């Protein structure tokens, strides 16, 4: 049900700084269901989500309703330590976050672009934190050098991350409409959803219940861009809101209409509209 990742580097760094200082980062909300099996992303923050057979066959499943930006930030920074090294080497540095062992501050890879060797020498990548061997290898140079206090700072960072509690609130229902509406209401704070993303959640359907591009609106829009780009490259610049206007027009709905339920009914009645 989730929209795309929208946070800036600054927002990612601030989240990790909040974890370090023990500030609350809010509750993650999940939809807990027995009967609904939805397609899920294979990656988060460009990292694989481990395919656990026991989880896939669990009688109760949980889907993220609120917290994708925070989960992506945490997994993007800390996740590489949880995966085999060869699966993370192809990933770029855009998700990497560093901790300055002298200043106790966080920075993104972009923040440190062009920094001199002295600055880089005091940076600890968070991607090693949760892997004991990689963590020890990373701080070995500091142990041998003239700044042993950096080891204490690294250990303090590790302790704070390991001990940080993240509360999870479950929404327990078998009604997908209730889950979708909860999602849209939760996501009207912070970085606001545009109308296209709002309607995507309201109209979302899995493969067994009217799926396809019309049941997954934002991915349907992505498919439009991919298919049309070969003959008309400017389509890649069309925003979701523009494609939403066109979809409204194709369905005979006023593009200024705020009757979202009416649009959803029309979309379900004409699932081929995206094609």
What attributes does this structure have?
275 residues, alpha+beta, 3-stranded mixed sheet, 3-stranded antiparallel sheet
What report would you give on this structure?
The chain is of the alpha+beta class and 275 residues long. It is built from 12 helices and 8 strands. It has helices at 9-21, 53-56, 68-78, 85-88, 117-121, 132-144, 149-163, 176-186, 195-203, 217-229, 240-250, 260-269; strands spanning 28-33, 43-44, 47-48, 61-66, 97-100, 105-108, 123-125, 168-172. The strands form 3 sheets. It has a 3-stranded mixed beta sheet with strand order 4-1-8, with helices on one face. Strand 5 (97-100) and strand 6 (105-108) form a beta hairpin. Helix 8 packs antiparallel against helix 9. 27% of the residues are buried. The mean pLDDT is 84.
């Amino acid at each position: 049900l989730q929209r795309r990742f929208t946070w800036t580097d600054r927002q990612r760094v601030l989240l990790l700084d909040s974890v370090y200082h023990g500030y609350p980062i809010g509750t993650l909300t999940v939809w807990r269901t027995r009967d609904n099996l939805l397609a899920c992303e294979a990656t988060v923050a460009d990292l694989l989500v481990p395919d656990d057979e026991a989880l896939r066959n669990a009688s109760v499943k949980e889907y993220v309703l609120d917290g994708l930006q925070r989960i992506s930030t945490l997994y993007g920074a800390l996740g590489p330590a949880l995966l085999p090294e060869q699966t993370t080497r192809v990933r770029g540095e855009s998700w990497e976050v560093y901790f300055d062992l002298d200043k106790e501050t966080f920075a993104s890879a972009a923040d440190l672009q062009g920094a001199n060797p002295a600055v880089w020498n005091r940076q600890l990548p968070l991607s090693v934190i949760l892997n004991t061997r990689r963590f020890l290898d990373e701080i070995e140079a500091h142990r041998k050098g003239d700044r042993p206090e950096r080891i204490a700072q690294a250990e303090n960072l590790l302790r704070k991350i390991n001990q940080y509690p993240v509360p999870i609130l479950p929404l327990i229902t078998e009604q997908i409409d209730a889950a979708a509406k909860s999602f849209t209401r939760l996501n009207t704070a912070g970085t606001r959803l545009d109308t296209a993303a709002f309607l995507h959640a309201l109209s979302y359907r899995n493969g067994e219940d009217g799926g396809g591009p019309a049941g997954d609106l934002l991915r349907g829009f992505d498919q439009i861009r991919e298919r049309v780009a070969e003959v008309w490259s400017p389509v890649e610049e069309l925003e979701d809101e523009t494609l939403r206007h066109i979809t409204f027009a194709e369905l005979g709905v006023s593009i200024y209409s705020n009757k979202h339920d009416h649009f959803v009914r029309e979309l379900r009645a004409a699932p081929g509209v995206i094609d």
